[in-house]
Write a structure and sequence with these properties.
627 residues, alpha+beta, 18 strands, globular
Length: 627
């Protein structure tokens, strides 16, 4: 479903506007680039006595499009795919658009209530106790079981799954919001809870028999894990060697080997990457399997003693003839299924990062208001409010790109769902391709930038606390410890750069940025947009320079700086868009963030333009060590 937001007359033309706050606006379009009806060739013309709306909505029937004019507001809604058919089958299914929005809000309210009143109060005890290893089995910290019980009773499992399997059928965008809320209460528990998202991969690539067998269990609250990493296969998953052999006698696949650094490793249902093709040594010999803990054959050999996220068990697993089912087709495990699995996981880490970033900001802000030095609260000192304002700006900008990315995922997943029931039209196939590409391009930016920002914000939260922040009784130290892993697991920031660099060098991001620059901004924000225009010019020059440098090694070395420039500019434009529509919420953050981004972009540009391939000799650590 997509909606044209209300509109008003401005300077003799019709302009879309949206009074909702940032979270609500993420659900539907607001008339700006890449959102709402601008996704479907639209035109609003002022005809004097009336407005003429022309819209090309591929895949919609005329009877599915509804127009409503009331209180000087025009609303056009088009129902895609389900047409709210679930309302006749399920008591809790929404009956229309407004009811669906209300459902999402209710789920977020429930999530917030449990996070604030159960998960967060339990977080310190969980951090201190951690999980236990007993006779080859992992046991959660005692209060983790309270968290699990509360979320299960509230029905907060299988959130994105269809109702026919017992899920809530919610889009990825509100699910990301819920994930962010849980993370702000306890990042370790968010890992356990959000791994329910692994079921998306089974839903997309498993058989209908497997869907009916496993999805209802996850919707009822059974836990999941994705077993990818091995002692000799971390970032380079092509080296995975856990062996999968088909047993004619057992009528199933048997898994043998070791997995390491597996988050929630003793879960109920595992998705396992294993080598099914004997004699192979690359990604083409890997397949995806479903292992059910009820079958036995897997023991926990070790639980890692980690710096942070203590409530989230990180396990080393030993597989001994563990019975498993093939998910999808052989040889597609890494090439296709893990890529889908990892993109979902990376969006989850982006949400986790935003949640902890919010918690860090809250702690710093509260302390700065209460702590007095020289007879006044430290929040009034420029050195302190400089840190606080940057924390808030990074938080708001990071949240904006998280929700934008989630929306792209929602659109292409909706089209994929439609394709399972009927053949897509030519226009729909183009849309599917477009939004799949946008989601693929934005995911590494959302994950990488937010995971770096949360580390910076957690660091600054301790700095605002001064010496107290270094004391274990204060929450800031736990947030700092928890955040450190976010830029490492599910693909380090360096790997996010690798995922994004082709979209940088082929001009994808630059094209998006230039299109976003055509958006209207409020008069007060136009000077900031001009700064972004100049940043974009420097960005384009830097890209061209790196492409012409004539050294692949130099391009790889400079890629991180281009990546950071990309994120800085994209988020500058998103926060300007937010501030235009809700200045009371985001105008200050827009002013702070654009200045911060400008500082970053100019610095990176200067570095890149003064760099030559011959400079690499000064940076090669191996050569320095040899000397």
């Amino acid at each position: 479903m997509f909606e044209l937001r209300p509109f008003e007359r401005r300077n003799n033309h019709v302009a879309a506007y949206d009074p909702w706050d940032q979270m609500e606006r993420a659900f539907f379009g607001d008339g700006s680039w890449g959102r709402g009806l601008s996704e479907f060739k639209t035109d609003i013309q002022d005809k004097g006595d009336f407005y003429l709306l022309e819209a090309d909505l591929p895949g919609f029937k005329k009877e599915d499009i509804h127009v409503d004019v009331a209180d000087d507001r025009l609303t056009v809604t088009a129902e895609r795919h389900s047409n709210f058919e679930d309302k006749d089958k399920y008591e809790d299914a929404p009956v229309d658009h407004d009811d669906a929005i209300e459902n999402y809000k209710n789920v977020l309210e429930i999530t917030g209530d449990i996070a604030a009143n159960i998960i967060e109060p339990n977080s310190e005890d969980v951090d201190l106790e951690g999980p236990h290893l007993v006779d080859g089995r992992m046991h959660y910290a005692s209060k983790t079981y309270e968290n699990l019980d509360a979320t299960r009773k509230a029905g907060l499992w299988g959130i994105s799954m269809p109702r026919r399997y017992g899920g809530l059928n919610m889009p990825v965008t509100p699910y990301s919001m819920a994930s962010e809320i849980v993370a702000s209460a306890d990042a370790g528990f968010q890992n356990i809870w959000s791994l329910q998202d692994c079921i998306e991969t089974l839903y997309e690539f498993g058989s209908e028999e497997q869907r009916q067998k496993y999805i209802p269990r996850v919707c009822a609250g059974e836990t999941m894990s994705m077993d990818l990493t091995e002692p000799d296969a971390g970032s380079d998953l092509q080296r995975v060697m856990l062996k999968a052999t088909y047993s004619e006698e057992e009528g199933c696949w048997l898994l043998n080997g070791v997995k390491r650094f597996i988050t929630n490793g003793d879960s109920d249902i595992h998705l396992v990457l294993a080598r099914s093709e004997a004699g192979t040594h690359d990604g083409r010999g890997l397949s995806m399997f479903i292992y059910d803990k009820k079958q036995g054959g897997v023991t926990v050999r070790h639980i890692e003693n980690k710096l942070g996220i203590h409530g989230s068990p990180t396990c080393e697993l030993v597989y001994k003839n563990a019975k498993a089912e093939l998910c999808g087709s052989t040889r597609m495990g890494l090439i296709k299924y893990v890529m889908a699995l990892m993109n979902g996981a990376r969006l989850g880490i982006a949400a986790q990062s935003v949640g902890v970033s919010q918690a860090a900001y809250n702690e710093a802000l509260a302390y700065a208001r209460e702590r007095k030095q020289f007879d006044k609260a430290i929040i009034h000192f420029p050195a302190v409010y400089d840190m606080l304002s940057r924390m808030k700006a990074k938080l708001d900008a990071g949240r904006s790109i998280l929700y934008m990315t989630a929306r792209y995922v929602d659109i292409y997943k909706a089209l994929e769902d439609i394709s399972r029931e009927r053949k897509l039209t030519a226009e729909e196939r183009q849309e599917l391709k477009k939004y799949s590409r946008l989601a693929d391009a934005f995911t590494p930016i959302a994950k990488g930038m937010n995971s770096e920002y949360v580390n910076q914000n957690a660091y600054d939260a301790i700095q605002v606390h001064g010496g107290s922040g270094f004391i274990m009784e204060y929450k800031s130290q736990r947030l700092y410890r928890d955040a450190r892993i976010f830029s490492i697991y599910e693909g380090t920031t360096q790997l996010q750069v690798v995922a994004a660099i082709r979209y940088i060098t082929n001009g994808t991001y630059l094209g998006i940025i230039k299109e976003m620059l055509d958006n209207e901004v409020s008069e007060e924000l136009k000077p900031l947009r001009e700064r972004v225009v100049k940043m974009t010019e420097l960005y384009e020059q830097a890209i061209n320079y790196v492409k012409e440098i004539g050294s692949q090694e130099a391009q790889d070395f400079l890629a991180r700086r281009l990546y950071d420039m990309t994120g800085d500019i994209l988020m500058s434009l998103l926060i300007l868009d937010d501030a235009t529509r809700a200045p009371e919420l985001f105008a200050k953050s827009a002013n702070v963030y654009v200045r911060y981004a400008e500082e970053e972009v100019v610095g990176h540009y200067t570095y890149i333009k003064s760099f030559i391939a011959e400079d690499l000799v000064n940076f090669r650590a191996a050569e320095a060590e040899a000397e």
